[in-house]
Amino acid sequence: MAQPATPEIIRLSTADLERLLGELRGLLPAKTYELVESLLRTLQWVLALLEEKTATLARIRRLIGGKQSEKSSVILPKAPAQEAASTPARTSRRCSVNGPPSWPHPW
Prior knowledge:
Layout: H1 14-27, H2 30-52, H3 57-63, H4 72-75, H5 81-86
């Protein structure tokens, strides 16, 4: 699959952005205008953070709502408390990291 072409980077000052939004206000339906305005202001804000070098890409990703990963506690159902309490703890008869157990070994 071919890589998409890199878009041309256009830099707008705040005044130019306000002028553009003023022109678009009369041309677009209200809901569409609100969406475009929000997108352009978000883009301007992210670019300003990057230019100031005050934020990392990871921080910007978190700020705009990127989730790190799904948590298993959210995906998997919770185990009933009775099952967890009635399950006996497993013990090992083999040597552990902290040394051999104190009872005699069968081997």
